[in-house]
Design brief:
Elements lengths: L13 E4 L7 H11 L3 E6 L2 H14 L4 E5 L5 H15 L4 E4 L14 H28 L4 E6 L12 H21 L4 E8 L5 H6 L2 H10 L8 H12 L10 E4 L5
Parallel strand pairs: 1-2, 1-4, 2-3, 4-5, 5-6, 6-7
């Protein structure tokens, strides 16, 4: 696919992706951005998997992949991720906030620590990374894109997901408000909201029976593949979406 210039959608752009290690949405986003001509900085708190993902992507895209360990609950680590991207490639053009943490626990059985951790990673982590990236984008003279990973659970109810749904609804509201804060700088802020995306983490927090039931609710009878979500992220990051800001795009075949 080529962009308005005739090159890849993200040709020459510097893209930072959080939670980019492993085989989930983050690494799929990184791969798609690389395929579209970007230089990509991977962030993740799992250093071994981060190094493995960097090395794997570098085989196909030598010189265009960098990695910086980053725990989004650590403000200093977030600053190092952004400054590391700038040191390596001179600037940042796109931040994809993919880091999030879920679980499956009824409110009556959930303790404060579990609630706070999910919100700290998923919502406050998005805030920390966005703030750092926006400050850099504004210092560069403006322009740039933030794409947040939300969830349809920000709109829809699901038992056992109160903490995760509250965090993702917060990401949606944060996206809309932040878009207005930085529009004057030519910076766009949007989000994707997947319903069910197939990645290894889901099997650790939900039973196979629960996953099968969620898949049956989808019009296509299956979960989205991570690359299908990544395609929408790449669109929002590209110059094909220059008049979109403050929007939350559902990546779902599920209907009430």
């Amino acid at each position: 696919m080529t962009g308005p210039s005739g090159h890849g959608l993200l040709s020459g752009k510097v893209v930072v992706v959080t939670a980019a290690a492993g085989a989930g949405i983050g690494s799929a986003v990184a791969r798609r951005c690389l395929d579209e001509g970007a230089r990509v900085v991977l962030g993740d708190s799992h250093e071994r998997r981060l190094g493995e993902t960097r090395d794997l992507l570098s085989i196909v895209h030598p010189g265009r992949v960098w990695a910086v360990p980053c725990d989004v609950t650590d403000e200093a680590a977030v600053r190092r991720l952004i400054s590391g991207a700038v040191t390596r490639y001179g600037r940042i053009d796109v931040l994809v906030n993919n880091a999030g943490l879920g679980g499956n626990r009824p409110v009556t059985e959930m303790d404060d620590a579990e609630w706070e951790l999910v919100l700290d990673v998923t919502l406050t982590g998005t805030f920390r990374c966005t703030r750092a990236a926006l400050r850099q984008m504004i210092a560069q003279g403006g322009g740039g894109v933030i794409v947040n990973n939300a969830s349809v659970l920000g709109w829809r109810a699901q038992a056992g997901q109160a903490h995760y749904a509250a965090a993702k609804a917060g990401v949606m509201a944060f996206t809309r408000c932040t878009a207005l804060d930085v529009a004057a700088h030519g910076i766009r802020v949007n989000a994707v909201a997947p319903s069910l995306a197939a990645h290894p983490f889901l099997a650790r927090v939900m039973s196979q029976a629960e996953l099968d039931e969620l898949a049956r609710r989808e019009a296509f009878g299956r979960a989205a593949e991570p690359w299908e979500v990544a395609t929408v992220v790449a669109f929002l990051a590209s110059d094909y979406s220059t008049y979109l800001t403050g929007e939350v795009i559902s990546v779902s075949s599920q209907h009430p």
